[in-house]
Write a structure and sequence with these properties.
Mean pLDDT: 87
Low-confidence stretches: 1-24, 613-628, 644-667, 675-689
Distance between the termini: 26 Å
Oligomer: single chain
Helix content: 25-40%
Length: 689
């Protein structure tokens, strides 16, 4: 699965061990284009963590597609299947006997969540702007740009004798999306703006003399929403109907968009979206565009300017970003990799803020009610990758929405642990949604994977290691990690062939197939047990539990090297050297885990580990055939073993989105000490990479 923040993960390994310097204004960082977007993926994103918008930059017709992070299908519910644990022993028996198909058929009927599928993130609507006086065929000097340092999307062009400029921001301090439209000739700005809904059940209405309201309900669910548009014109007049606002004879205009739903929590949908928007607009009504912009830029830069990265001293090519990306195939452009790194940080700032939802598969941006993979939280790698940059990139507070999700699934996952495994603690499988489903979903050959929540707890441990907050460890991290560990003390079972503890039924993402004892599970569980043991020692609590975890950890089936010199993906030595499946789940212990290191595991040498990576992705001569998460996972794994020769060679054949993660011979990284975590981040990065 693709997500726009993933490609920067490897470059953060550079940032984690960098020197700290004083904060300064970075070099210009922007994505820019010389034509409007013709499809959604070409538009530029802005976001404030709760709302997002995609700006198309049209000339005579502009489209601003917008989202709100709690507009989903579905309703509060428990996804666990009552009594599923009664079939657990039989599933294991079938798998031990090699009767995989029978086990999968039984699990599909008796062990999957109810309902079988989770719910989908939804679009909200569009703002459509028509400029009747503009002839798009005669426009000149066109430029649309996303300035990463200020988080402002700007569209500029000249039509006839008039220069038009539009600026769009998504303000976190003011909780709105705002747009400024200006011309350089008095009285030359005229346009019609119409809000539209992505949902069938909606209504529009002019209210309050200067606002348009768009209200509705998600058809397949209980979420109610309202968007509220405030229109202010300078030097002209505004006329409202129930469906649109017409501005004529103005020199400039400011549009302010608020959006809200009735969502309070995964178990509570009692809020009033209209009252929420009333409150938001009451706070911004008297504020000028200049005040809105200044507050927004200051808030964004307080986060964005914490890190600088430079890869070489060459000037950036003066070509639009889309052509620059294509040109980089044949002409080295290290600053493009730096730009991609900063774009990743920008996207996390825009899609994950304290008090909101975590970044989902598409961050906070989505233009369809049937998005790929429902745009959920896929926790068998995608959600984790979204947040890999938070701690080493000195954006630790942006993980707060993820930690809130963990608190939620630690609650909903208790019933899943009880009903599916007769176990204590809590469990989360490979996906969750707004309603915090924790049960296995979709299909038994890949949906039964009980280590999704355990992997997510790694971010709690990182946050503690980087920040050093004993209060965070005591009050937030330890209770959640402890509950996950208690589950695995019950879930691990004795392998009758070896006497070792193994996990199962499970699978090896994304290879699939229901099995007992996949390597990735054991790596994650060992890491979880290690983190809980260290945390309990730090807090001076749970000595008996600590001893149980240490004993169980020592009995978990170890990593094995197979007949081909490969790290086995399963307990059995059945890896196929001709299999070109692109995923490398069994390299979790190399990255983001830490149990495979060049010095600590001599048998897992750097060259051997690189060959494992190549074999697992169907590569030849170190060239990656995997796309998206798999290619980037291989890139980060290769970087962890310092195999820059392989990394450099692989870069040339890597997908374009992965090339930012290639080794770069000359770089300078600065992590600004705007939070106390910066110094500890350096220590941890240096010791682990």
């Amino acid at each position: 699965m693709r997500h726009t923040t993933h490609p920067i993960a490897l470059l953060l390994l550079l940032a984690a061990s960098a020197p700290v310097h004083a904060q300064s204004a970075p070099k210009p960082l922007s994505l820019w284009y010389d034509a409007p977007a013709t499809q959604w993926v070409e538009a530029v994103p802005v976001g404030n963590g709760r709302m997002g918008a995609m700006v198309f930059g049209g000339i005579a017709r502009e489209r601003i597609q917008f989202n709100e992070s709690t507009i989903w299908t579905g309703a509060p519910r428990d996804y666990a299947r009552p009594g599923a644990h009664r079939h657990l022993a039989r599933l294991r028996e079938l798998l031990y006997a090699g009767r995989q198909a029978e086990a999968e058929a039984l699990a599909q009927v008796q062990f999957m969540g109810a309902p079988l599928r989770q719910r989908a993130y939804q679009a909200f609507g569009d703002l459509r702007i028509e400029l009747p006086d503009v002839d798009s065929t005669s426009a000149a000097g066109y430029r649309r740009e996303l300035d990463l340092d200020s988080a402002v999307a700007t569209t500029r062009y000249r039509a006839g004798e008039v220069t038009y400029v539009r600026q769009v921001i998504a303000s976190h301090p003011d909780n709105v999306i705002a747009m400024r439209l200006t011309t350089d000739r008095p009285g030359s700005l005229s346009f019609v703006i119409t809000p539209t809904s992505a949902h069938r059940w909606h209504m529009r209405k002019a209210i309050g003399g200067d606002q348009l309201s768009l209200r509705g309900i998600v058809e397949d669910g209980v979420i109610q929403f309202e968007a509220r548009l405030l229109v202010r014109a300078e030097g002209g007049r505004v006329v409202y109907t129930d469906s649109s606002a017409t501005v004529s004879g103005a020199t400039s205009a400011t549009l302010v968009l608020a959006g809200a739903t009735n969502f309070v929590s995964y178990a509570d949908v009692s809020a009033d979206p209209i009252a929420r928007n009333d409150s938001t607009l009451a706070r911004v009504r008297g504020r000028s565009w200049g005040a809105l912009l200044a507050a927004h830029v200051a808030d964004h830069r307080a986060l964005f300017r914490r890190v600088e990265l430079e890869l070489g001293a060459a000037d950036a090519p003066s070509v639009p970003t889309d052509r620059r990306v294509l040109r980089s195939k044949s002409s080295p452009d290290p600053q493009l990799a730096a730009l991609l790194f900063h774009y990743g940080r920008y996207l996390l700032i825009a899609s994950s803020r304290p008090g909101g939802q975590p970044a989902n598969l598409q961050g906070v941006w989505n233009d369809t009610n049937t998005p790929p993979w429902d745009s959920k939280y896929t926790v068998n790698i995608n959600t984790e990758m979204n947040y890999w940059l938070a701690e080493p990139g000195n954006l630790a507070e942006l993980s707060e929405p993820l930690f809130h999700l963990l608190r939620d699934v630690a609650e909903t996952g208790r019933s899943t642990a009880r009903e599916h495994y007769a176990a204590q603690g809590w469990v989360l499988h490979h996906n969750t949604d707004l309603w915090r489903g924790a049960a296995p979903i979709n299909n038994s050959n890949h949906g039964i994977w009980p280590t999704g929540g355990a992997w997510l707890t790694q971010h709690l441990a990182w946050h503690w290691e980087y920040g050093g907050s004993r209060a965070f460890l005591r009050d937030t991290a330890y209770p959640i990690m402890r509950g996950a560990a208690l589950f695995f003390l019950d879930q691990l079972t004795v392998d009758p062939r070896s006497g070792r503890l193994i996990s199962g039924p499970s699978n090896s993402p994304e290879h699939g197939g229901l099995v007992m004892g996949p390597t990735m599970d054991h790596m994650i569980i060992r890491d979880l047990f290690d983190n809980v043991i260290r945390a309990s020692e730090t807090l001076g609590v749970d000595a008996p539990l600590r001893a149980r975890l240490a004993a169980a950890r020592a009995r978990i089936a170890p990593n094995r090297v197979g007949r081909l010199g490969q790290l086995q993906e399963w307990l059995e030595d059945r890896d196929d050297s001709t299999n070109e499946h692109r995923h490398v789940s069994h390299l979790w212990g190399l990255h983001p885990g830490r149990e495979i290191t060049p010095r600590g595991t001599p048998r897992c040498s750097t060259r051997r580990a690189a060959r494992w990576c190549s074999a697992a992705t169907g590569a030849r001569d170190g060239r990656w055939r995997g796309r998206s998460t798999s290619g980037r996972g291989c890139a980060t794994a290769t970087a962890r073993i310092d195999c820059c020769r392989t990394c450099s060679r692989s870069r040339e054949a890597a997908p374009r989105s992965s090339r930012a993660a290639a080794c770069t011979p000359t770089c300078s990284t600065r992590i600004h000490p705007s939070r106390s975590t910066a110094t500890s981040a350096r220590r941890r990065g240096s010791s682990r990479c």
